[in-house]
Amino acid sequence: MQKRRLKMSAIKEKSLKYNLHSWSAQGNLNPKVITKAEGIYFWDEEGKKYYDMSAQLVNSNLGHGNKAIVNAIKDQAEKIPFIGPGFAIDVRSDAAEAIVEASGLEGAKVFFTNAGAESNENAIKIAKQYTGRWKIFSQYRCYHGSSAGAGMLTGEPRHFANEPGPAGFIKYDGPYAYRAPKACKFETEDDVADFYLELLTNQVKYEGPESVAAIFLETVVGSNGILVPPAKYVTGVRDLCTKYGIMMVCDEVMAGWYRTGTCFAFQNFGIKPDLVTFAKGATCGYVPLGGVIVSEPIAKYFDDHKMMCGLTYSAHPMGCAAAVATINEYKNLNIAENVKKQGKVLGELLEDLNKKHACVGEVRYIGLFSAFELVKDKATKEPIVGFNDDPDGLMAKIVGMLVKEGFWTYSHENMIIVAPPLIITEEELREAMAILDKVLDSVDNMIK
Ligand SMILES: Cc1ncc(COP(=O)(O)O)c(C=O)c1O
């Protein structure tokens, strides 16, 4: 045992010596050394077990160790691990076909990338090429990736390092009723939709619709707090885009692949986007793969116009093989049904937490995609703070308490995200949520 510990600690030491870790000052990091992962759980070097209640970065939709995906990757590695993107191979065509079918966008085609940011980079270029316009709208409260273009789509502070960036990136306010401007008095979801649609419409008019190539939205805003838009808002954005010939781009990198119950989140709202970007759940992260689904008119446009996009690893055989296996598994395991069933349980448990705990301001959920806001006072909605910029703050303590109890999650500002693997059972969900309940009891005491 002693020998094993020493060996594992050496892994951490080496990681700190050689690895740069994302979004962090490097000096004070203490990364967990992970030695095993299975289903909705993973284990650290001490043998401690964690409920993976964020499905890693909301991508491990089928949990850890899915044999069908692993075997598909192994088989592809034996067969053709790599061949240039210009060649046609079985898994390349099969993956694209399965994705187009899942999207319900008849006549659509797929340009494959390696991840979410790259998908958005290419969606920007495709929208610009197709429309001949150059301005790109995206929300303030959103994350679309961290590379040069996708980083400028990102509206929240993670885009600061990309500034000033290229011209033409315009930000707008998307629906967020809980923290809407004080003067807003919304009575219905439609009121919320009307208010935010009016803001966006005015902005588009003042920017000059003839210069606007695309309006991006995370169909359901993910890491910025699971903001489920009113249906009228999504259909309103669709209408606005259609009216002015603007491309509606739904970023489904996080919300896609059954996270919200339907394969793609836009399918909850009965609309058809012009472009859809995806990644994460397409392969559950077993190997990287992302892509852009382009609707039929855009696909046809590129029949006789050169599409100016290309990547050495576009439609990588290993990624495509993993995607085919993953999409089959979603169907074989009837994941849509499980999300519907467990999503209902999760919603009820979250509503109970909201009623019970003084520290919970609002809960938001759709399918197995949920978040709640931690507040010092329900009436004033004053957020609990102290995370990235203040590692000793209250939020950091709360996340630490959850981790200590074996509840692994993803947090942002004053929000805790609950988005487990979509294979979770009711028993597992109730066990994990009981841990959360216990920790929130302590938080109630801390804010008294
Ligand atoms: C909605 C959304 N878009 C894009 C991205 C960027 O994806 P990647 O990290 O794979 O580049 C993310 C990552 O979390 C995301 O949540």
Description:
By secondary structure, the protein is an alpha/beta fold. It folds into two domains: 32-62 and 334-446, Aspartate Aminotransferase, domain 1, CATH 3.90.1150.10; 67-332, Type I PLP-dependent aspartate aminotransferase-like (Major domain) (Aspartate Aminotransferase, domain 2, 3-Layer(aba) Sandwich). 40% of the residues lie in helices and 16% in strands. It has 13 helices and 15 strands. The protein has helices at 2-18, 55-58, 67-79, 90-103, 116-131, 148-153, 189-207, 231-244, 296-301, 317-332, 335-356, 394-404, 426-446; strands at residues 34-38, 41-44, 49-52, 109-113, 135-139, 169-172, 212-218, 247-251, 275-278, 290-294, 360-366, 369-374, 407-408, 410-412, 415-418. The strands form three sheets. The chain has a seven-stranded mixed sheet, sandwiched between helices. Helix 7 (189-207) runs parallel beside helix 8 (231-244). The chain starts with a helix and ends with a helix. The site of pyridoxal-5'-phosphate has 15 residues, from helix 5. This is Aminotransferase class III-fold pyridoxal phosphate-dependent enzyme. GO terms for molecular function: pyridoxal phosphate binding; transaminase activity. Belongs to the class-III pyridoxal-phosphate-dependent aminotransferase family.
